[in-house]
Amino acid sequence: MNRRLLWKLCGILALGTSALFWVISFVGSETERQMSFIAEPHQQTLRDWGRTAEAMYRAGDEQALARWLEDLQTRENTWAAVVRSDIQPLVGSRLTDRFRDGFRLGRDETWKIHLYFTENPIMETTFADGKTHFLVLLPQRMRPGTYLPEVRILLKVALPLAVLVMMCLVIYRHVMNPLRQLELATRQFTEATLAYG
User: CA 116, 122, 127: angle at the middle one, nearest 5?
Assistant: First the structure.
């Protein structure tokens, strides 16, 4: 076997395989990242729920707020609550401003959702007073990444298959061109021999 051909084939296979693994890794992680965010209409719905709860809370109509929370929980098949976070430091410790400003009981609607956890996260809207919070367990219909399992199968089967088919085509063309030339030369030699034979 021609060593030059061997090194070309090894180079093509090595580069192709490296490219395959890199593309699968990059596309897989980027796809999962993109699919981990709650859709914008659902984010807006969560914000609207928080504003509604805050307006009812500020109006002081606890019965209306309780009915609205009950209706929301029934309609969305989820859990929701309005709570206060009166954090008291103990044994002489102090809370920093950074902690007071950034303390959250749940997740902001713009944060990424970890798709490998089966449970939905608790989402939070902090009221203007900074101590009262609307909490809701993310309804299943709003959970991002619904088609992630199918996308993973495509990335792990279809993408490698496509890259391997392309590599096979490159190798096939590289091997078949000299064989076609040899076949053509053999045919011409046979015809010439028969003509002069």
Answer: 145
The answer to whether the beta carbons of residues 103 and 87 sit under 8 Å apart is: yes
Residues 83, 98: contact at Cβ < 8 Å?
Answer: no
User: Which residue is associated with the tokens 């902690």?
Assistant: 99
Domains defined for the chain, CATH in brackets = 3-32+148-196 (no CATH), 38-142 (3.30.450.170)
pTM for the model stands at: 0.65
Taking the chain (197 residues) in runs of 10, the rounded mean pLDDT of each run is 75 82 85 86 94 93 93 94 80 74 74 80 87 91 82 82 82 82 85 75
Overall residue count recorded for the chain in this entry:
197
Contacts of 57 (CB under 8 A, 6+ apart): 65, 82, 127, 132
